[in-house]
Amino acid sequence: MLETARAIIAAKGLRSLKVRDVAEAADCSIGSVYNEFGDFDGLILTVNRETVEALAARLNAVPKDDPIRQLHGLAETYLAFFTEHANLLRSLYEHRMEDDRPFPEDILLMVMRAFALMHDPLVRLMPGRDGADIALQARMMFSAVHGIISLGLEERMVAVPPDKLREQVAQFVDTYLAGLGVAPAPERTAQ
């Protein structure tokens, strides 16, 4: 059931996921899906948890030796993951819980831990800066990188063309850091 749900979301997006299709592909009843996952949200949340875990594993593998290279590596890794798993990642952001129930705390914490990986390099680049301000800067930086990538891959309106995304994301990271008073790494300025 889970593999079927993941495959449908990956291929066609969250809106295409129907309990009936999952049950038919798994050769079981709709009730069996609900028994296994509690409700439709439970099935989607299980797929989303796996997506966040896979993303976090990739982001955690980015070398941490140099903070500027780490920030660039995080942005490049996010771009690569988004390119490979666009619909699965979109599912994470698009899913709304039925009956306005709150999003499960464990998924929110997983997402926050993954995105907080931008926090440590910013702390190292801006020693003495207020921790709350750095946390805000990390969230803003992630949000901007996500937006550039998301719009670019969807080729929406005035988005960055997909073939220019890597270059433009790297340029954004350098520009953002410059705005924070952090000079780009010497090898970046030579490019």
Number of helices: 11
CATH architect. name of one domain: Orthogonal Bundle
Query: Per CATH, what is the topology of one domain?
Result: Tetracycline Repressor, domain 2
Could you spell the SSE succession in H and E letters? HHHHHHHHHHH
Mean pLDDT reading: 90
* Strand fraction: under 5%
Task: Give the strand tally.
Answer: 0
Q: How does the helix and strand content classify structurally?
A: mainly alpha
Task: Output the CATH homologous superfamily of one domain.
Answer: Tetracycline Repressor, domain 2
Which regions contain 5 or more consecutive residues with pLDDT less than 50? Answer: none
Q: How would you describe this structure to a colleague?
A:
The chain is an all-alpha fold and 191 residues long. It has a domain at 52-183: Orthogonal Bundle (Tetracycline Repressor, domain 2), CATH 1.10.357.10. It is 71% helix and 0% strand. It contains eleven helices and no strands. Helix 1 (2-12) crosses helix 6 and helix 5 (67-84) packs parallel to helix 9 (131-154). The N and C termini lie far apart (48 Å). The model has no long low-confidence stretch (mean pLDDT 90).
Topology, please?
Blueprint: H1 2-12, H2 19-25, H3 30-37, H4 40-60, H5 67-84, H6 86-94, H7 105-115, H8 119-125, H9 131-154, H10 165-179, H11 186-189
Helix pairs in contact: 1-6, 3-4, 4-6, 4-7, 5-6, 5-8, 5-9, 5-10, 9-10
Structure summarized in a few sentences:
The chain has helices spanning 2-12, 19-25, 30-37, 40-60, 67-84, 86-94, 105-115, 119-125, 131-154, 165-179, 186-189. With 191 residues, the protein is mainly alpha-helical.
